[in-house]
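Saturday, quiet lab. Running sequence design on the structure tokens for the scaffold JK sent over.
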């Protein structure tokens, strides 16, 4: 990947100034907790975007994506990109820098990525973080890491038009090898926890489906959580989000005031935060089996209480539960399709995949794709 991006840049543009590597991410536990000011536990992975950049002597931006074999050009004074085009993730960062008064000029860039697109590993955040890191270095903008993370998030929120949270950029930028990041979405404080798996690997099974109800149901879940908070505020005015709610408040008060669906949504979020905190304690003791049980419990909550799973995801988790070599599994991401994340003994991966692939196809008619990954360092300059 590195050699290819360097070679292509030299062929297209001549001399580069630098190359940045920025990884994708996984989330081990803590789903749909971010917008409720809760905790998440992501890690950067060994699949990354490589971003080569060089200065121009004009005000134009020339981009080339080797994966797509596609170029795109625009000017700094009239930034534009097609909707959800790969160039928008780069130009959104440029737009944010200009809006905030940072002096940049024209540049050339070549992008090469190995993060699977559409598999829930956040290739978009990897590209945004690579862009802001490279521009910060190239133009000596002196942005600190948190500023770059926030700017990358705003680029996706405002220029691309996706109202994502900050977890993806945070993990991509601040990941550490064999570490998971406990991120507090209330105040953006964070801690690292050991995630050296020894004879286990992180394996993603991709359902290859995405059900169309995902977008509207995502917004509905947010509304239901907000309704639960509103009801509890009548008794507990100090409650600002579900982060401030405990199990006792749910069982003694909310259950009397809310619909069963609103109660279930809030119950899941409060329980998931507790699971995550306990899971981090288990990681400190290198208790992978115990952590895996928390992953199974997380999926149960996502499927039954939060109702964001689907038959394909549930099938893969049920298959995982039958395997002694799988410590834990759950759906990862927003839901209604995408991947399950699994902790599998390395020696058993091929055998398990072969059996799962056959049974999954028989049940769904879909092919099952697998990705094997490890926790690695975050965004950095490689040359």
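Result came back. Writing it out in full:
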């Amino acid at each position: 990947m590195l050699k290819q991006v360097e070679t292509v840049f030299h062929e297209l543009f001549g001399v580069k100034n630098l190359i940045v590597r920025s990884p994708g991410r996984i989330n081990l536990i803590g789903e749909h907790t971010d917008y409720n000011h809760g905790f998440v536990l992501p890690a950067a992975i060994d699949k990354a975007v490589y971003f080569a950049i060089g200065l121009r002597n004009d005000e134009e931006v020339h981009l080339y994506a080797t994966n797509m074999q596609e170029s795109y050009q625009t000017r700094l004074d009239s930034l534009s990109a097609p909707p959800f085009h790969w160039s928008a993730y780069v130009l959104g960062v440029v737009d944010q820098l200009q809006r905030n008064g940072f002096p940049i000029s024209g540049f050339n860039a070549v992008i090469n990525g190995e993060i699977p697109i559409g598999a829930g590993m956040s290739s978009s955040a990897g590209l945004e973080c690579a862009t802001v890191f490279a521009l910060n270095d190239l133009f000596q903008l002196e942005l600190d890491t948190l500023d770059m993370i926030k700017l990358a998030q705003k680029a996706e929120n405002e220029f691309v038009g996706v109202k994502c949270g900050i977890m993806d950029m945070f993990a991509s930028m601040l990941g550490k090898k064999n570490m998971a990041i406990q991120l507090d979405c209330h105040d953006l404080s964070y801690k690292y926890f050991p995630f050296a798996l020894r004879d286990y690997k992180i394996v993603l099974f991709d359902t290859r489906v995405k059900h169309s109800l995902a977008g509207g149901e995502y917004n509905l879940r947010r509304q239901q959580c907000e309704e639960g908070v509103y009801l509890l505020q009548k008794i507990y005015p100090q409650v600002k989000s579900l982060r401030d709610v405990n199990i006792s408040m749910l069982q003694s008060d909310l259950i009397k005031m809310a619909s069963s669906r609103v109660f279930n949504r809030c119950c899941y979020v409060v329980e998931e935060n507790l699971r995550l905190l306990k899971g981090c304690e288990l990681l400190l003791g290198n208790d992978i089996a115990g952590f895996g049980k928390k992953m199974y419990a997380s999926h149960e909550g996502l499927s039954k209480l939060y109702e964001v799973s689907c038959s394909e995801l549930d099938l893969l988790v049920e298959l995982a539960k039958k395997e002694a070599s799988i410590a834990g599994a759950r759906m990862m991401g927003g839901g209604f399709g995408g991947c399950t994340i699994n902790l599998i003994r390395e020696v058993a991966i091929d055998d398990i995949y072969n059996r799962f692939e056959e049974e999954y196809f028989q049940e769904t008619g879909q092919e099952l794709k697998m990705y094997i990954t490890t926790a690695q360092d975050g965004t950095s300059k490689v040359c």
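Notes for JK: DSSP finds eleven helices and 13 strands in the chain. Residues 200-373 form a domain with the Alpha-Beta Plaits fold (CATH 3.30.70.890). Ask whether to fix the surface positions before the next round.
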